[in-house]
Amino acid sequence: MGRIEDLATRYHSYISAPWQRNLAGAQKTIFVVYDKDDERKLRARLDEFETRTTEAGHSWKLFDFTPVFAKWMSEMDYRESYFEEPKDLSMKLQIEFVRFAADELRKTLNSPEVTEDTVIGVYGIASLFGYTKVSLVLKEVEQDIKGRLVLFFPGEYENNNYRLLNARDGWNYLAVPITLHGGVITK
Fold first, then answer.
1. pTM, whole model, 2 decimals?
2. On the CB side of 48, how many CA atoms lie within 13 Å of its CA?
3. CATH of the domain at 57
């Protein structure tokens, strides 16, 4: 069995257990942590996670962060000047892009077919790297999570700390981590 299939099996054992309903949004988040080199393999096998989710009796919906930055830039009035002076974009990235990225995800979280039994699978978060922190976007949408939010996380989890793309800085988050080495870690 490959690494992604092993993660899908570990994910299935967690997602099939009865869900506690009175959790905060951060506690309804699941991080499936995998090696950054496996990004293409994961994308090719997202259907395994969908299958495991539906086998557990939950509905499934996907959201991809990959096109979000390009969409945000394309809607900006003065985008050409930001290409000439990218450092001028830093203030907009800290506030406006975080809100934009959160609003894009929120559209999926609040779509009419999403219920308390829906799993939203989020991938493409590596495309946010260098523009904003995933933690800032998640903080914006925590109150909108109805069922479960599964974040496919290319990076590391160690000592309650998540590091996207194995970058130096990380953050502590209340999510349930699913890893190859530790399985499902409950808090």
1. 0.89
2. 19
3. 3.40.50
